[in-house]
Design brief:
With 417 residues, chain A is of the alpha+beta class. Chain A has helices at residues 2-11, 13-44, 69-88, 131-135, 161-168, 191-196, 253-264, 275-325, 333-360, 369-372, 376-415, and strands at 55-61, 92-98, 108-113, 119-127, 139-142, 155-160, 200-206, 221-225, 240-245, 269-274. Chain C starts with a strand and ends with a strand. The chains are: A alpha+beta (417), B alpha+beta (415), C alpha/beta (221).
């Protein structure tokens, strides 16, 4: 029986080949969609590491590039005044400033070479002391930045557990200096420059800070301390000011907030956004590609369904004609259906096997960081789900038309004589 | 003769209704997608309501600075255009405008977000807005930095409740402006004329922008005639070589070409070589043709399959025609006519469906103020796609048909 | 008119070699009316196909009106068929979706003519076989004999010099068969059309001027 079946399939190989290729491509596209979806679902399980309720982000546009040290100093002073002015407002509980914050579109990434020949990458942020309180970031070990660090001769940093584990292994991270090696290609350091290149000392470890939100992959993160009263002209200026509002503050408060800010810094522009709204936009930036690829996959699957239906219908009618000519009895018609379905199973299996073999090569390819971060369990789960989905689709496409065809054909089968 | 083929084609399609239905379904859907995409492109890049002079206008929107280790992309800076783009040969008018930014107006406890553009007076002479009230700001308004504004109908509705706004004032981003003109809404897909509020650029809060080579500004160069466009492009590119770059250690070259609308769009597409000041349009066309072919490949393959099995059914007819001396060309032609008839019908169905889809997208408000519709151009594109699709999916089966051995065909068809 | 010299036709599949014709030498003079007879599977149809240029011999030469076919391209052969050869088949092979008139016009589609001319010729051909009244009917509406007459009209519409008929009366009853034979005889007599007919009907063969017998691919007696 199988021999006969295989011979039948081989005879119609051209047609079956084209369809198998279609199923192959649909599998890959569907896999892409499933992978993204499973990846997101998996990421969403982990905590994000902060709270954004009642938090507003104020994007600051200074309109003037701050390359000149005098301008920089002026800007820093303005920021300081801004933060004080906002803190005085009764509707505001906490004020903090920083380079970036949750769900924003600014990402600062960095990396460094460690002694021992290793290399780490991490997301970076530079924030004022009030940041932790504002976002309610739980400290796992050590402490957050405070005035204690004003006099430090090293750079205090707070890192997340993931980064701590990567740098220090299972050992204690708090109080340790990150063992960086300076770039051998650096010019010989002069005393002033050497003094500036302070080492980074970990003063605290947090569980997690996933700047891009629930759907992003867990990554390394590092906080620098930002001081608005810092005399150092090289130190960074904030790009955003964050405020947490007292409970019950209405949305109309925004107008007063902006007026107050403009009173301090008339030449600057302020863009106030509720972080919850930024979250919506950020999540949409994850789901939109998913929807786009999903639509493409849907289109492909629709085409596969149509193609399969056509081939099945035609295959069944051809067989019925063959049977009709040999004056077969009605009892053999279920045989036709089984034959056709087996043909479909074999075609689909070929496509699936080819696709899975191709996908198995993926972990071996040098891919950008985003993609290699996908855990094996997610990858495998996606493959399994896609395989099941494809089989269900192709069998459904085969079942219905063949059922219809076998019911209609008998009367016409004799007609074909 | 073609009539003979068409009559036969229609009969053949009607005979195998199920196959025809499946094929038509797939074809219409595919052509629906292609027609909708064509409509989008036509809407965004084709001749637009407010841009009657687009054919002889060059645009400069994105610059690229690069050095051995770094690249930096942004829009142009005011200084770049002000100093190097004036008095170009063949230039009729030059307009500079800042890229649109979102500003907020706080009114009675409401927050109204609008898109604001700072422009010069030449902007209004190169583009043609439809004014429902008042007029645009002119040279004197800009020179004296008067706080006047042109707003669109939607903004008039939001801020003034739809009442006549001429002479009224409003606040945006902390500045107060007086309305001197109201225009019809411009689709957000047309990036050059699009905004909610237009004000003279001299009303900016600081004038730091005047010292920037790269920044947030774009330019339009209206050429005297189509022939001058090349001269403008070349001359500006050569002037760029003299520009003093902000960080000469990091950046050694600046790419900031004046090019056609389509070329500025093509420059932002993947696979474009942004370091090349010459037009990237052909790469873009190539990329999209490739994507289009890939997209069309799957339904085409389906159709090829169906077509080949239909050929087998007509073995008898093919055998007879060959016996009576039909050259391969005639058989291929016959089959292509049949196939193209099918795809053109599918194209027509897809076209009708696209009208509904585009209406739905317009109604959904996904793209602000965009009225997506079909027009004669889009219809022509749609039909061209349909014919192309018919050729792609018909050539191989037609060739197979012509190669059929007449003896076998006559034997096989004798059932 | 038709000359076959040392013809051999062998069919090869992966495992089997079938010799359909061997050592066949045949000349049909212009205006001849020849029958080819023999048992089933003896190669009659193959021989007819070779004469009609629908197939090429494995060995040997075919000449139509003095021109050797071996050197002809596919296109040239098709043109020759269109101009000089007409076919009639046992199972008629009419296109069911086309009217009688459209069916008859098929050979003319591949010649440069105006549509009006094609119609005129087709109507004339139908007139010769006596089916003018059925011009706009469809094959499914006609009897077997009428269908075969349409097929003959189609075969002669282009005024070919040669008519090749493969068991033309095989699917017809004796009365219809006789009608067909009489039409063929008229064509041969009045137009001097060279007719080669394959048949297994001795009675029909007797109405032709010469009988060629085949057995297992070879000529006998």
């Amino acid at each position: 029986m199988t021999r006969h079946l295989l011979r039948l399939i081989w005879n119609r190989k051209r047609q079956n080949f084209l369809l198998t290729v279609e199923i192959f491509f649909s599998f890959l596209t569907l896999f892409g969609v499933v992978l993204l979806a499973v990846q997101y679902a998996n990421n969403a399980r982990h905590p994000i590491g902060y709270q954004i309720a009642r938090v507003w982000s104020i994007g600051v546009d200074r309109k003037e590039p701050a390359s000149d040290p005098a301008i920089r100093a002026r800007h820093r002073e303005t920021y300081d005044q801004l933060v004080r002015a906002l803190s005085d407002m009764p509707e505001i509980e906490v004020v903090a400033a920083g380079f970036t914050g949750p769900y924003s579109n600014s990402n600062w990434g960095s990396g460094t070479d460690l002694s021992g020949g290793r290399n780490v990458n991490f997301g970076v942020n530079s924030v004022t002391d009030g940041y932790r309180d504002l976002f309610d970031i739980p400290i796992a070990e050590g402490r957050w930045f405070s005035r204690e660090d004003d006099a430090a001769t090293w750079k205090p940093v707070v890192i997340n557990r993931r980064l701590a584990r990567e740098i220090f292994g299972d050992g204690n991270a708090v109080g340790q200096i990150i063992p960086e090696v300076s770039d051998p290609g650096d010019p010989p350091p002069d005393p002033a420059a050497a003094a500036k290149r302070q080492s980074k000392r970990v003063i605290g470890v947090i569980d997690e800070f996933r700047q891009d939100g629930e759907l992003s992959a867990p990554a390394n993160y590092l906080f620098y301390r930002m001081r608005l009263d810092d005399a150092d002209p090289e130190a960074n200026l904030p790009e955003r000011i964050f405020v947490r509002l007292a409970p019950g503050t209405p949305a109309s408060f925004e107008e007063s907030l902006v007026k107050r800010a403009m009173a301090v810094a008339g030449a600057w522009s302020f863009e106030v956004e509720a972080v919850e709204d930024m979250r919506t936009d950020k999540l949409r930036s994850y789901t939109t590609p998913l929807m786009v690829v999903g639509t493409i996959a849907g289109f492909l699957l629709l085409m596969v369904a149509l193609g399969l239906t056509g081939v099945v219908w035609q295959s069944v009618t051809q067989r019925i004609r063959e049977f009709g000519l040999r004056r077969a009895k009605g009892a053999t018609i279920p045989n036709v259906r089984t034959q056709v379905l087996s043909e479909i199973v074999i075609m689909t299996s070929l496509a699936v096997i080819a696709a899975v073999v191709l996908l198995a090569q993926v972990p071996l390819l040098p891919l950008p960081r985003d993609l290699t971060g996908i855990p094996a369990s997610v990858f495998l789960a996606s493959i399994v789900v896609t395989v099941i989905a494809i089989y269900v689709l192709t069998l459904a496409c085969g079942w219905q038309p063949s059922r219809l065809a076998t019911r209609i054909q008998p009367a016409e089968a004799l007609h074909y004589e | 003769m073609v009539r003979h083929y068409l009559v036969l084609a229609v009969k053949v399609l009607l005979r195998r209704k199920f196959f025809t239905f499946i094929s038509l379904f797939g074809i219409s859907f595919t052509l629906l997608v292609l027609t909708v995409i064509a409509a989008f492109f036509d809407h965004a890049l084709g001749p637009g309501q407010e841009e009657p002079r687009q054919r002889r206008t060059l645009y400069m929107e994105r610059t690229l600075m690069y050095g051995p280790h770094s690249t930096s992309g942004s829009s142009g800076g005011f200084k770049l255009f002000d100093r190097y783009a004036r008095d170009l040969p063949g230039l009729e008018r030059l307009s500079l405008h800042e890229n649109a930014r979102t500003v907020h107006t706080y009114l009675d406890g409401r927050k109204i977000s609008s898109t604001l553009k700072r422009t010069d007076d030449e902007y209004w002479r190169i583009l043609e807005f439809r004014f429902v009230e008042g007029t645009s700001f002119g040279t004197a308004d800009v020179a004296e930095a008067r706080f006047v504004a042109v707003i669109n109908v939607a903004t008039r509705d939001r801020i003034f409740g739809g009442w006549p706004a001429l002479g009224q004032t409003f606040e945006a981003d902390g500045q107060r402006f007086r309305v001197i003109g109201v225009v019809e809404n411009v689709s957000s897909l047309r990036s050059v004329p699009y905004a909610d509020i237009w004000v003279p650029y001299t009303t900016a809060k600081t004038d730091a922008f005047k010292r920037e080579i790269t920044g947030d500004w774009s330019a339009m160069a209206l050429a005297k005639d189509k022939a001058s466009m090349a001269a403008i492009h070349e001359e500006f590119n050569s002037r760029l070589l003299r520009v003093e770059l902000p960080n000469p250690r990091d950046y050694q070259a600046l790419v900031a070409p004046f090019e056609t609308r389509l070329a500025t769009f093509a420059r932002e597409m993947p696979l474009a070589d942004r370091k090349d000041p010459d037009s990237q349009v052909w790469r873009f066309v190539g990329l999209f043709t490739l994507l289009g072919l890939l997209f069309v490949l799957v339904p085409a393959v389906n159709l090829v399959n169906i077509n080949i099995s239909r050929i087998m059914e007509r073995a008898s007819e093919i055998g007879v025609r060959k016996a009576f001396g039909a050259p391969a060309r005639a058989l291929v032609g016959q089959f292509l006519v049949e196939n193209i008839l099918l795809t053109v019908i599918g194209g027509a169905v897809g076209f009708v469906l696209s009208i509904f889809v585009l209406q739905g997208v317009t109604d959904s408000g996904l793209f602000k103020y965009a009225h997506l519709t079909v027009n004669l151009r889009v219809f022509a594109y749609g039909m061209a796609f349909a014919v192309l699709f018919g050729l792609i999916s018909g050539v191989y089966p037609a060739w197979r048909m012509s190669r059929l051995n007449p003896v076998q065909a006559l034997k096989g068809g004798s059932r | 008119m038709i000359q076959l010299k040392d013809i051999e036709k062998v069919y090869r599949t992966d495992r089997i070699e079938t010799v359909a014709l061997a050592d066949v030498n045949l000349t049909v003079a212009e205006g001849g009316f020849v029958s080819i007879m023999g048992p089933s599977g003896c190669g009659k149809s193959t021989l007819l196909n070779l004469m009609g240029l629908l197939d090429a011999p494995t060995k040997g030469t075919v000449q139509i009106n003095g021109s050797p076919i071996a050197s002809y391209s596919d296109r040239a052969m098709a043109a020759l068929r269109n101009r000089d050869i007409g076919f009639v088949f046992q199972v008629f092979h009419l296109v069911t979706d086309l009217s009688v008139l459209d069916n008859v016009q098929i050979p003319l589609l591949y010649r440069r003519m105006s549509n009006a001319d094609r119609r005129t010729h087709a109507e004339a051909a139908l007139d010769r076989v006596g089916l003018s009244a059925r011009m706009h009917h469809f094959p499914s509406q006609l009897s077997g004999g009428q269908q075969q007459r349409v097929a003959i009209a189609r075969a002669i519409v282009g005024k070919p010099r040669i008519l090749l008929a493969d068991e033309p009366t095989g699917n017809l009853d004796s009365q219809m068969g006789d009608e067909i034979m009489s039409i063929l005889a008229t064509l041969n007599r009045e137009d001097r059309t060279t007719i080669v007919m394959v048949t297994h009907d001795q009675q029909k063969a007797a109405q032709t001027s010469r009988i060629v017998r085949l057995f297992d691919g070879r000529q006998v007696n």
